[in-house]
Design goal:
The structure holds two protein chains of two kinds. By secondary structure, chain A is of the alpha+beta class. Chain A has a single domain, classed as TusA-like domain (Translation Initiation Factor IF3), CATH 3.30.110.40. The longest helix of chain A has 12 residues. Chain A starts with 5 loop residues before the first strand and ends with a strand. The mean pLDDT of chain A is 95. Chain B is an alpha/beta fold. In chain B, α1 links the parallel β1 and β2. The two termini of chain B are 28 Å apart. Classes of the chains: A alpha+beta, B alpha/beta. Chains A and B meet through α1 and α2 of A and α1 of B.
């Protein structure tokens, strides 16, 4: 698994909470730091792509494993 | 890049219809939008300190029901409260945020909420029943922001 600076477990949360929690966590992080997000909402896959595109943060990795979704978001 | 703007008119005061304004506003704010919600008519219920919104299947044939039920039965006393309880339970079990939580997230993110002064007067609402962080205004107030918005929705 790649390195990250902070982790956010958004398992069990539905739209738009994973995005909102991620945004809040990123607010407290520095530019270039990486946030690891865990989610169970299948909608989060497209939503984190869209979030990254619109906010200038970089979605470094997006993968599914055993019904869970894992994202690495690098703060822009 | 200049900040984008989202303007919403919220006109509905039921539990289900309170979700779109709060979900879209909180998300837009997280994406960097400046957001205003203009609450008018039944949308004023979204601004009450104590949110006590209900859901009803009456006049709403699209609402999925756990079992088929004649409309007259749906109109019986207590049915609305029962459906509201069931809906809230379902939302909780699916990890959907409560309206209170979403509204709080909106306020934290500086989403501006405006109560329509005309409908506040029309229904003799007491402004002390509303949350403190709101403004009061009319149609011209709405257009001052909406006229410059990138996205403008009527809910």
């Amino acid at each position: 698994m790649a390195d990250f600076d902070q982790e956010l477990d958004a398992s069990g949360l539905n739209c738009p909470l994973p995005i909102l929690r991620a945004k809040k966590t990123l607010n407290g992080m520095g530019s270039g730091e990486v946030l690891h997000i865990i989610a169970t909402d299948p909608g989060a896959v497209k939503d984190f792509e869209a979030f990254a595109k619109q906010t200038g943060n970089e979605l470094v990795e997006s993968r599914e494993d055993g019904g869970k979704f894992y994202f690495l978001m690098k703060k822009g | 890049m200049a900040e984008k703007k989202l303007a919403i008119i919220a006109t509905k005061g039921s539990l289900d219809w309170a979700y779109p304004p709060f979900i879209l506003s909180s998300t837009a704010a997280a994406l960097g939008y400046e957001v205003q919600i203009f609450c008018t008519f039944y949308g004023l219920q979204l601004l009450r300190k104590k949110l006590d919104l209900k859901v009803t299947s009456l006049g709403n044939p699209g609402m999925p029901m756990p079992m088929p039920m004649p409309i007259l039965l749906q109109a019986l006393p207590g049915m609305q409260s029962m459906m509201t309880v069931m809906m809230k339970q379902k939302m909780k079990s699916k990890g959907v945020a409560s309206l209170e939580e979403l509204r709080e997230l909106c306020l934290e993110a500086d989403v501006k909420m405006i109560a329509c002064q005309m409908t506040v007067d029309l229904f003799d609402f007491n402004t002390s029943d509303f949350i403190d962080d709101i403004e009061y205004g009319g149609a011209a107030t709405f257009f001052e922001f909406a006229g410059e918005s990138d996205v403008c929705l009527f809910v």
